[in-house]
Amino acid sequence: MITLLADRPAAAHAAQIEQFGRLAGLWTTQITYFPPDGSPSSHVTGAWEFGYALDGRAVIDVWQVPGRDTLAGAPRSADQECGLCVRIWDAGLQLWRFTFHGTANRRLIHMYAREVDDEIVMEQAEGGDLVRWIFSDIRPESFHWRSQRSADGGASWRLEQRVRADRAAAPAAAGDPHQTGETFIQ
What we know:
About 10% of the residues lie in helices and about 50% in strands. The chain is mainly beta.
């Protein structure tokens, strides 16, 4: 969709858009879930693809568990997540507005995000809990992400999920998917 994707951040807020824009591309993910009851953690792999959108004023991504490579051409089952995230920089508030649409679990999540030191911290209140999603250790070829929950107003935090993402090798013939839109959101 030519009208949806963009190949660079909008000039007006390029520095802010690059907070998430530097993640543009396809990533393979190793995901660890930590059950709240203390039972053993579980591990899965997935894919995460980021790109500029809306004339470079937004960063969107698609979160897939498992990744397309794992499915080997089979259709995704109803319990396998393929979710869409939309991040829009709000210049007036000087923060990001974020929405996640999860198809498998029918989740709709709204958060606000801001850069704190060398991390990007996304926050929301959910019921009586506070939830944080944090991007950290962001490098050109890898980054980390974690989900934390606090039931005591932020005095203590429990780790719910941890992700290590590694930049996937670009397809040899396809070129840059953010220039052509060939592989984004399938």
